[in-house]
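Support request from a user on the community tier.

User writes: "When I paste my structure tokens into the form, the page sometimes reloads and wipes my input. The last time it worked, I copied everything first. Here is what I submitted, just in case something in the input itself triggers the reload:"
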């Protein structure tokens, strides 16, 4: 009973479509068809390898009205009156058998994905007939998208299956990570389009189209971006975009009442949701003072140095290595580079001769902070996962370095853009940030 995750609830979507022109209605239909194709590809191409690699014979995903599993939208959505189950069984053939128990609705019917439609009352007999050895359920130690089985739903499932079948239940955390973080061509296309939405709106926001120095606040920039999402029928990854000042003065409240002035260096951190794809990216702008036509040379040098570090990250990414090993490799390169040192986020050392580097190139795509292999110490389990072609990564780093024109205090230069792991290494899915934007 919902329009995917386009940033519109059912009521808002109904109002929009009621007033839609034929052109906008056609866009809605095209997005629906794209979403349906992504779901088909996900189940046809990605699910079999994810289940077999993780030795899961059957995967049960439970949802309750008002409490959808995080994976329900990828699995077809649909309306659940009380409790519904998506059940996937590896019967030793090419594809995975797909059965829906207690799930329906017009949208679910118009994108047919399931071989069987049954009542939840039939669940135990269905499972007993297929006799799986290992039944994966969404219980996880770290990854939230794999932890959708609530306590009461778990109790209900155990009660329904009975002791003999219930003892075969195992956590499906790695299966869910693989299913969500490996992508077919249709998903890569959607992610690339989400990246274009992200950078286009961001770069318009950090321009004179939106900013009037001495008048516009960082909060007004953020809400202009939110309005663009609303106009274009998009969702977002993290709520209100984070807009704040990097220098020369105090950063001020994030997306708050700080009035943007000539001489400010501004950054933005945000993400767009289009269909199943979520981005996470940053952009930076300098507000020119009268008579200037470029940022201060020290600011430009700092930005260029951050781009060099970004290239170090790209050079260690390749399929077949764990995300943690890739992070360790780039950290070694940073530590061996004169003038650079590994640092701590927003806590640089006082020595002005040393520039601090923090790298957190995390999984992205299925959420702004995704479920797959992650080159980031804040995702310890995901650092143990192996990088594979089709994984999305957000290449994120922070450089803390002095800008001579602004005194001895170190400023933060953040870079972040998104791409995909391929057999060749890593490739951008939208042009990355290669310049400081200028506001007059």
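"...and here is what came back when it finally went through:"
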């Amino acid at each position: 009973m919902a329009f995917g995750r386009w940033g519109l609830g059912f009521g808002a979507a109904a109002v929009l479509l009621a007033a839609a022109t034929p052109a906008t209605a056609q866009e809605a239909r095209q997005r629906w068809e794209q979403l349906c194709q992504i779901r088909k590809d996900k189940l046809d191409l990605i699910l079999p390898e994810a289940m077999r690699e993780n030795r899961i014979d059957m995967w049960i995903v439970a949802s309750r009205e008002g409490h959808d599993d995080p994976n329900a939208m990828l699995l077809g959505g649909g309306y659940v009156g009380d409790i519904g189950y998506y059940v996937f069984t590896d019967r030793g053939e090419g594809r995975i058998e797909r059965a829906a128990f207690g799930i329906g609705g017009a949208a679910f019917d118009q994108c047919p994905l399931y071989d069987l439609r049954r009542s939840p009352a039939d669940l135990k007999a269905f499972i007993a007939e297929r006799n799986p050895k290992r039944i994966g359920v969404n219980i996880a130690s770290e990854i939230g998208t794999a932890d959708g089985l609530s306590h009461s739903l778990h109790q209900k499932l155990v009660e329904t299956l009975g002791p003999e079948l219930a003892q075969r239940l195992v956590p499906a955390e790695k299966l869910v990570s693989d299913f969500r973080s490996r992508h077919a061509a249709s998903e890569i296309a959607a992610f690339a389009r989400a990246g274009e939405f992200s950078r286009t709106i961001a770069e318009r926001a950090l321009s004179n189209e939106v900013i009037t120095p001495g008048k516009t606040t960082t909060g007004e920039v953020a809400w202009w971006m939110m309005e663009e999402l609303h106009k274009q029928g998009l969702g977002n990854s993290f709520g209100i975009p984070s807009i704040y000042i990097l220098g020369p003065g105090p950063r001020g409240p994030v997306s708050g009442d700080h009035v943007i002035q000539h001489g400010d260096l501004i950054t933005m951190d945000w993400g767009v949701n289009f269909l199943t794809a979520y981005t996470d990216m940053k952009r930076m702008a300098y507000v020119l003072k009268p008579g200037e036509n470029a940022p201060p040379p020290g600011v430009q040098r700092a930005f260029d140095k951050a781009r060099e570090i970004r290239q170090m990250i790209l050079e260690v990414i390749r399929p077949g290595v764990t995300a943690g090993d890739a992070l360790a490799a780039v950290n070694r390169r940073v530590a061996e580079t004169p003038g650079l040192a590994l640092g701590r986020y927003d806590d640089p050392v006082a020595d002005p001769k040393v520039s601090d580097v923090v790298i957190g190139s995390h999984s992205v795509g299925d959420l702004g902070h995704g479920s797959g292999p992650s080159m980031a110490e804040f995702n310890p389990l995901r650092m143990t996962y192996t990088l594979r072609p089709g994984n999305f990564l957000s290449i994120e780093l922070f450089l803390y370095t002095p800008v001579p024109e602004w005194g001895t205090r170190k400023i933060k230069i953040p870079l972040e853009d998104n791409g995909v792991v391929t057999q060749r290494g890593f490739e951008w899915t939208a042009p990355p940030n290669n310049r400081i934007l200028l506001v007059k």
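Agent notes: The reload is a front-end session timeout and is unrelated to the input. The two ends are 47 Å apart (CA to CA). Residues 181 and 372 are 5 Å apart (CA to CA). Escalated to web team.
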